[in-house]
Amino acid sequence: MSDQEEKQPDPYMNIDPLRDTYREKIAEAAGRTHSLQRHNTALLCIDMQYLDAAPGFGVFADADSSGLPPESQAYYFDRLESLVLPNVRRLQEAFRANRLEVVHTRIQSLTQDGRDRGPGHKRLNLHAPPGSKEAEFLPIIAPHGDEIVINKTASGVFTSTNLEYVLRNLGITGLFVVGVYSNECVSTAVRDACDLGFYVTLISDGIATVTPELQQATDTTMKDRYARLMDTEEALSEIEGVFL
């Protein structure tokens, strides 16, 4: 390989040409750099349930007909089990220890036959009836006590439920967001929350999707435009710095 070939720049290094502009105009602008001290902050846990986050159930009941190649499924569940679920659990424990709200969303219909589902979920055959295994939260990150659970039948939890109303009633102005899938329900929630005026922090190692490319695209798109991007250790340090 020639020296010229070796020095070819990575075409993905500057995939976001407006990165610095957004960081200056939004992320570091007055009113956008508040810490937890300036916000009543909740942890928003999105769709961490058997329907879409457990092998052998729901979307993955039949691995061969899930529409995802084996390598994508392996990547997704490895990321969930080795990284995301332990991190979400740690964040939940930190929020609970400091008497901060932990709010859970899940896909669950009002009816057993799912006739109330949104058109998108009907088209994709996403269905978790009340009382079904698919509607259950994964045990490691399940709600505690009377933590709030918001049921939804569409991708966007803000547009299809009363979540905003509930958060306003609680006085919540900031959200730390975790869950699945990064590029679908999670990113929709982040965008909508930002547009509604919430100060959003997306936990980069607390979310998962089915390919590393989609994960990277989510991180790149969300960062500084719609949310701070922070890993679990940084989030825990911020919580500790404010409350301890």
TrEMBL record:
List the transmembrane segments: none
Q: Which CDD domains match?
A: cysteine_hydrolases
- Alphabetically ordered keywords of this record: Hydrolase
What superkingdom heads the lineage?
Bacteria
One GO molecular function term of this record is: hydrolase activity
Its lineage reads: Bacteria, Pseudomonadati, Pseudomonadota, Gammaproteobacteria, Chromatiales
Recorded hits in Gene3D superfamilies, A to Z, give: Isochorismatase-like
What protein does this entry describe?
A: Cysteine hydrolase
Q: Which organism is it from?
A: Candidatus Thiodiazotropha taylori
Q: Name one Pfam family in it.
A: Isochorismatase
**Start and end residues of each Isochorismatase-like domain:** 41-234
